[in-house]
Amino acid sequence: MNIDFPIHFDQRGRTAATGGDDHIRNMIEQLLFTNPGERVNRPDFGSGLLQMVFAPNSPEIAAALQFTMQAALQRYLGDLIDLQNLQVTAEDSTLSVVVRYVVRRTQESSTATFVRSGVS
Predict the structure, then answer these.
(1) Confidence (pTM)
(2) Spatial CB neighbours of 34, under 8 Å, sequence gap ≥ 6
(3) Rounded CA gap, 15 and 99, in Å?
(4) Is 96 exposed, middle or buried, given 0-12, 13-18 or 19+ CB atoms closer than 10 A?
């Protein structure tokens, strides 16, 4: 078992845990929504996705961001997943990311959707 993300407590008041496939999804989420330079001992960890919440939208920026995110996923999680597809959509101050991947250990296909809004 692994610590669930975001960290919270379960019904017993203990740190919540998660299984293997959920843990992989959590790692993808952490990678996508961490800005490079945010992690102390891994300054290049992250995708820079959150920097784009309020940036102007254009096909060129979206393509560059998608390329950067694919590279980050392959670099940091390539031994755990086989990335099949990555789709990013930005509407107003909301980012939606759909990641299709195969878990290498089990060969099971999964799709994870992540949504973040710039409005608090």
Answers:
(1) 0.79
(2) 45, 46, 47
(3) 27
(4) middle
